[in-house]
C-alpha cells in the first residue's frame, strides 16, 4: 500500500501503539475435513469480520471457460436448498451487516462484517452455501448477462482496462494469467450453468478453503463454531495442481490498443520475482523499496522529476506486488503531457530506473522511503477488515500469515546496494512488455471514467 507524505512519524507511532495494545497474534486451527481456521482477536470495537477464502481463481481456468470463477462467485448469492435467490444478502442486511465477494487471479473470497454477536449467524449462512448451493438455469441465464454487462462497463468501455487486458495477454504466453479475470466475452456468451456447477463441485470444498475471522471475538469460540457449521462438510478430492511455467522471454514485446480516450497512455511491465521464501528472497524486498523510491510518496522520483520539474507527463506511477501464486510484474506507467509522445515517456521512465542502477540511492532517501513502506504496511492493519485481507492474501499465495511481521522486518533491512542491484537486474528488454494506448476521438456516448454498476451487480 502506498502511503503519501501526509503520513507523519507521530501518526505512525500512534498506529503502532494502538495495534500493540488492541490486537493479538493470530491463532490457527485445522478442522478434520482439512479446512483451516485463522482467528485474529482485536478488541478495539465490538465488530467482527468473517471471510472464507477458496484457493482457486482465474489462473485455474482453461480455454473456453474463462471467467467461470467469477461467474460462480455471482451464483453463490443465488440460493441454496434452504435459501431463495437473494435471501443470503437479505439476511446479512437484516443482521445489520454488510457482505460481498471478490474474484482474483489466485483466489475467490466471501466476507461479512457484522456486530460480534451476529458471527454465528453468518457462519451458518456461509457453511450452507459451501455445501448446498442450487444451480437454477433461469437464475444462471440472468446472472451471466449481468457478468457480460460488467465486462462491457469495466473493460470494453474503459480504454486503460482494455490496455491492461492486452498487456497481460502479451506478457504471458503460457501462464493462465494470460486470461482476464472476468473472462473473454466469447467464453461468457457460450458458458452454461453446468460449467458453473462443475467448477463448484471441483473446487468448493472445506479442504480448499481458509476461514479468517478478525475482531472482537474469542478464538476458541470461533473454532467451536467452525467445527459446528463447517466441520460436518466432507472434504473433496481436489484436482492435482500442475505448475504452469512461463517460458523465458527473449526480447521486448509490444502491444497497441486503439480506443476512444482523452489521452494517450503507456505501461511498461517487467517480469519480476514473487515472494516464495521469506528468508531467501532478498530481491523481492529491494523491489518493494525501489517501487517506493520511484512512486511511494508525493515527492518520489517519478512524479517529482517527470511531472513537476520537467513537465513531460500529466501523471506517472510505479506498482509492484510480490504476493501471488504465479509470475508478477513491476509496472511503470504514465500519461504524457502535450508535446511528449508515449515513446518519449517510455524512454524517460526507463531512464529514471537506469539512473538508480548507475548512481544508487542515498541512505537518507532509503530510510525515508522504508519508513513510508513500513508505515503503509502498518496502516493496512489499522482496521479489522484490513487485517483479515492481509491474512487471507498471505495464506492464499503460500507465504503464510505467520510471516507478516517478518516481511516488514526484511523490508527494514534493505540496503542501498540491494536497491541499486535490482534496478540493474530486472529492467532490460528480456523482461519487458510495453502496452500503448493510442487514443481515438471521443464520441458523446464514450464514458470518460469507470461507470458505476447498475443495481444488483456485485462489487
UniProtKB/TrEMBL annotation:
Cofactor(s) the record lists: Zn(2+)
Gene Ontology molecular function: metal ion binding; metalloendopeptidase activity
Region (Disordered) residue spans: 438-459
UniProt entry keywords in alphabetical sequence: Signal
GO biological process: proteolysis
Domain Peptidase M16 C-terminal: from-to ranges: 190-372
Family note: Belongs to the peptidase M16 family.
Protein name: Insulinase family protein
Amino acid at each position: 500500500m502506498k502511503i503519501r507524505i501526509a503520513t507523519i512519524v507521530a501518526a505512525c507511532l500512534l498506529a503502532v501503539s494502538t495495534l500493540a495494545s488492541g490486537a493479538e497474534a493470530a491463532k490457527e486451527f485445522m478442522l478434520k475435513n482439512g479446512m483451516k481456521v485463522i482467528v485474529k482477536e482485536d478488541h478495539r470495537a465490538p465488530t467482527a469480520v468473517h471471510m472464507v477464502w477458496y484457493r482457486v481463481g482465474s489462473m485455474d481456468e482453461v480455454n473456453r471457460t474463462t471467467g467461470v470463477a467469477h461467474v460462480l462467485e455471482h451464483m453463490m448469492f443465488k440460493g441454496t436448498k434452504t435459501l431463495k435467490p437473494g435471501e443470503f444478502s437479505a439476511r446479512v442486511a437484516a443482521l445489520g451487516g454488510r457482505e460481498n465477494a471478490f474474484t482474483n487471479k489466485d483466489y475467490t473470497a466471501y466476507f461479512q462484517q457484522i456486530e460480534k454477536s451476529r458471527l454465528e449467524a453468518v457462519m451458518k449462512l456461509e457453511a450452507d452455501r459451501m455445501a448446498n448451493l442450487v444451480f437454477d438455469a433461469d437464475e444462471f441465464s440472468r446472472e451471466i448477462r449481468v457478468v457480460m454487462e460488467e465486462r462491457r462497463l469495466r473493460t470494453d468501455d474503459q480504454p486503460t482496462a482494455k490496455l491492461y487486458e492486452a498487456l497481460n495477454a502479451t506478457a504471458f504466453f503460457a501462464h493462465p494469467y494470460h486470461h482476464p479475470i472476468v473472462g473473454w466475452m466469447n467464453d461468457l456468451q457460450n458458458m452454461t450453468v453446468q460449467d458453473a456447477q462443475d467448477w463448484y463441485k471441483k473446487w468448493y470444498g472445506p479442504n480448499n478453503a481458509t476461514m479468517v475471522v478478525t475482531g472482537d471475538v474469542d478464538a476458541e469460540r470461533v473454532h467451536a463454531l467452525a467445527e459446528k457449521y463447517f466441520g460436518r462438510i466432507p472434504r473433496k478430492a481436489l484436482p492435482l495442481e500442475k505448475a504452469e511455467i512461463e517460458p523465458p522471454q527473449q526480447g521486448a514485446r509490444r502491444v497497441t490498443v486503439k480506443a476512444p480516450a482523452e489521452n494517450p497512455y503507456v505501461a511498461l511491465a517487467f517480469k519480476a520475482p514473487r515472494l516464495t521464501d521469506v528468508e531467501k528472497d532478498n530481491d523481492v524486498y529491494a523491489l518493494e523499496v525501489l517501487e517506493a523510491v520511484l512512486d511511494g510518496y508525493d515527492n518520489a522520483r517519478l512524479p517529482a522529476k517527470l511531472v513537476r520539474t520537467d513537465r513531460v507527463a500529466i501523471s506517472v506511477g510505479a506498482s509492484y506486488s510480490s504476493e501471488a501464486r504465479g509470475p508478477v510484474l513491476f509496472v511503470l506507467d504514465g500519461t504524457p503531457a502535450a508535446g511528449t509522445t508515449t515513446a518519449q515517456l517510455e524512454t524517460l521512465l526507463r531512464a529514471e530506473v537506469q539512473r538508480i542502477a548507475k548512481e544508487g540511492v542515498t541512505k537518507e532517501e532509503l530510510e525515508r522511503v522504508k519508513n513510508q513502506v513500513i508505515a503503509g504496511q502498518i496502516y493496512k492493519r489499522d482496521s479489522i477488515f484490513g487485517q483479515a485481507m492481509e491474512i487471507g492474501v498471505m495464506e492464499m499465495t503460500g507465504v503464510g500469515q505467520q510471516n507478516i511481521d517478518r516481511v516488514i522486518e526484511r523490508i527494514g533491512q534493505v540496503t542501498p546496494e540491494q536497491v541499486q542491484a535490482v534496478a540493474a537486474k530486472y529492467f532490460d528488454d528480456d523482461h519487458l512488455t510495453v502496452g500503448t494506448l493510442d487514443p481515438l476521438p471521443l464520441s458523446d456516448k464514450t464514458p470518460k471514467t469507470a461507470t458505476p454498476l447498475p443495481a444488483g451487480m456485485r462489487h
